[in-house]
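Please decode residue identities from the backbone states below.
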């Protein structure tokens, strides 16, 4: 049975370079170093899309030729919040794009039998409620981990959250949308669904293990 979610609240970042890189990422023969590099590169593309609507303000700049009215970012600052462990793989790419962002961490692991998320660590910037949060995790499977992380961020008073994942299952998108009607979701691909172990099909396997070489 197909899972219905609201496609208007999901952005699929399907640039040709993204699709090409994602195919290599999915390949079981891709080794740890290349896998890690690709996760970081894909995070840059996602970050680019997820920050497309950031407000700008005028700034006066003196070029070597003359004065010019240019643009700079205005308004609220950003926080990048990876869900540990696999989310860590997306942080460096995003920091290349937004070097001034603060980084918070939410430690969460999925019980192998029940697939329920368990929180084990949280450390966020003190002014996180004043920031736009990019919540990052390569995999959105059942949505349990992302939903728990979103709930935690909302409790801290964060109003603008953008969830960046690389591969999403329809089940995870629906679970997140049902739990949090205001979150914006970005994914490089939406796959077919989940298998009996709640792994994404076709997916790319265990993202954390492939990033950190703990297979
Ligand atoms: C993976 C992944 C997500 C979660 C997705 O983490 O990185 O956090 O599973 O599954 P869900 O949508 O069903 O919650 P995992 O628990 O394997 O931990 P790890 O990142 O430490 O490998
Ligand atoms: N976590 C992963 O790393 N991969 C999946 O397919 C599901 C959860």
């Amino acid at each position: 049975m197909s899972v219905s979610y609201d496609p208007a609240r999901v952005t699929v970042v399907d640039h040709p370079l993204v699709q090409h890189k994602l195919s290599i990422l999915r390949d079981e023969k891709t080794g740890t170093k290349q896998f890690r590099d690709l996760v970081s590169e894909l995070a840059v593309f996602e970050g680019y899309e997820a920050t497309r609507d950031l407000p700008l303000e005028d700034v006066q700049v003196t070029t070597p030729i003359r004065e010019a009215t240019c643009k700079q970012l205005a308004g609220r600052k950003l926080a990048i919040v990876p869900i540990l462990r696999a989310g860590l793989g997306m942080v460096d790419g995003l920091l290349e794009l937004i070097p001034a962002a603060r980084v918070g961490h939410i430690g969460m692991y999925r019980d192998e039998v029940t697939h329920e998320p368990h929180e084990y660590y949280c450390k966020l910037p003190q002014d996180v409620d004043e920031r736009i949060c990019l919540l990052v995790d390569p995999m959105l499977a059942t949505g349990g981990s992302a939903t728990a992380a979103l709930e935690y961020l909302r409790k801290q008073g964060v109003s603008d959250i953008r969830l960046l994942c690389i591969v999403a299952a329809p089940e995870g998108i629906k679970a997140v949308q049902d739990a949090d009607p205001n979150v914006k979701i970005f994914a490089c691909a939406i796959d077919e669904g989940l298998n009996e172990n709640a792994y994404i099909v076709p997916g790319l396997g265990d993202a954390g293990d492939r990033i950190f070489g703990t297979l």
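Observation: The CA atoms of residues 32 and 210 lie 6 Å apart.
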